[in-house]
UniProtKB/TrEMBL annotation:
Keyword flag Ribonucleoprotein: no
Family: Belongs to the class-V pyridoxal-phosphate-dependent aminotransferase family.
Protein's recorded name: Aspartate aminotransferase
Keyword 4Fe-4S on entry: no
InterPro entries in UniProt: Aminotrans_V_dom, Aminotrans_V_PyrdxlP_BS, PyrdxlP-dep_Trfase, PyrdxlP-dep_Trfase_major, PyrdxlP-dep_Trfase_small, SP_NH2Trfase/AEP_transaminase
MF GO annotations: transaminase activity
Species lineage: Bacteria, Pseudomonadati, Aquificota, Aquificia, Desulfurobacteriales
Length: 383
């Protein structure tokens, strides 16, 4: 029997609300028109409120990786050094981007599933005074792990020529992050995660310290942030933007503001706790020692390939969850609780996980154990 519906419980793309889909389907506007200019400027202001920053917020037509590339290409010069936190697939991406643009990475290797040592970063910055930046994930999506970016910001704020550049692609809209108060000089996110919009837009915020560092001649053409800074405050972009996606993002940001950012963060925290309790009730272990509120990485039981759990969920129930990446492929599976998600989505994901594990021969639980544990968390957190 084929499933009638498809549901996304992946850490991006995530499910898109009906309101956002309706906005996406509106007639396409000319990107230089007064009507689109008004929407674009409103979207920038809503993003500034989401980021809690007084700095510049730029919208790029790309995935989040485009904004990561823009940060490296515009804020460093070939030969510069940068500290890179490599604690997962996306930390490695920072390292790869640095090498691609001639920046020398000072790589802090972090075991996947662990958080970086802030003390180690502080030591490097003390002993290597010419470092131009620290590149880190707020949430390392591949492992479901949080890094203490707030603590890193307390160090970099004292270094006038060292920028803190944070990939918050699966953090903004999950947490209530005060970008300026955390001294994050450059922050990045993407439309397809907790912002509940289809893939295609990236957002990058820059404070005054970062704007002053922008290269006059960056090693980029399309991702030239100085060009965007000239245009976007006027409601324009340097090149043709994805107008329908901007309109959809505008609607999603309205939904976040209507719920209230603090409430959005509380909802994600509750759903994360419920998910963790559910998988632990099945006798399973989490990969992360410091788990994130956007996605839970679960270690597959011995003898069971995590990719098979993903396959059964998708083919039998139409539920798409995520597997592991790189050396963790087959060893973990990941359940997202990010964006347009409520407790019923979590219960569905847990039930499907139970079914898949039973089918694969793991029987150390009774059907419903994970749901019961999740509902107990829900009761405690909401009643």
């Amino acid at each position: 029997m084929k499933p009638l519906k498809k549901r996304l419980l992946t850490p991006g793309p995530t499910m898109v609300p009906e309101r956002v889909l309706e906005a996406l389907s509106r007639p396409t506007l000319y990107h230089r028109s007064p009507e689109f200019k008004e929407i674009f400027l409103d979207t920038r202001e809503r993003l500034r409120r989401l980021f809690k920053t007084e700095g510049e917020v730029l919208i790029l037509t790309s995935s989040g990786t485009g904004a990561m590339e823009a940060a490296v290409a515009n804020l460093f010069k070939p030969g510069d050094s940068a500290v890179v936190v490599a604690g997962g697939k996306f930390g490695q991406r920072w390292e790869e981007l640095c090498r691609a643009f001639g920046v020398k990475p000072i790589t802090v290797e972090v075991e996947w599933g662990k958080s970086v040592s802030v003390e180690e970063i502080g030591k490097i910055l003390t002993t290597t005074p010419d470092v131009k930046g620290v590149l880190v994930q707020i949430c390392e999506t591949s492992t479901g792990t949080i890094h203490d970016v707030k603590a890193i910001g307390k160090i970099t704020k004292e270094l006038p020529d060292c920028l803190l550049i944070a990939d918050g692609i699966t953090a903004y809209g999950v947490y209530d992050i005060p970008t300026d108060d955390w001294h994050i000089d450059v922050a990045i996110t993407g439309s397809q995660k907790a912002l509940m919009t289809p893939p295609g837009l990236a957002v990058i915020s820059l404070n005054e310290k970062a704007v002053n560092r922008l290269n006059d001649n960056p090693t980029a053409y399309y991702f030239n942030l100085k060009k965007e800074l000239k245009q976007q405050p006027k409601g324009q972009t340097a090149y043709t933007t994805a107008t329908n996606l901007v309109i959809a993002l505008n609607e999603a940001l309205k939904m976040i503001e209507e719920e209230g950012l603090e409430n959005v963060a509380k909802r994600h925290e509750m759903l994360a706790k419920a998910t963790r309790a559910g998988v632990k009730a099945l006798g399973l272990e989490l990969l992360s020692e410091n788990p994130a509120n956007g996605v839970t990485a679960v270690i597959s039981p011995e003898g069971i390939n995590g990719q098979d759990v993903v396959k059964i969920a998708r083919e039998t129930f139409g539920i798409t969850i995520a597997g592991g990446q790189e050396h963790l492929k087959g060893k973990i599976f990941r359940l997202s609780h990010m964006g347009y998600v409520d407790i019923f989505d979590i219960l569905t994901g847990l039930e499907v996980t139970e079914f898949a594990l039973k089918k694969l021969g793991y029987n150390r639980f009774n059907f419903g154990d994970s749901v019961k544990a999740a509902m107990e968390v829900y009761e405690k957190e909401t009643l």
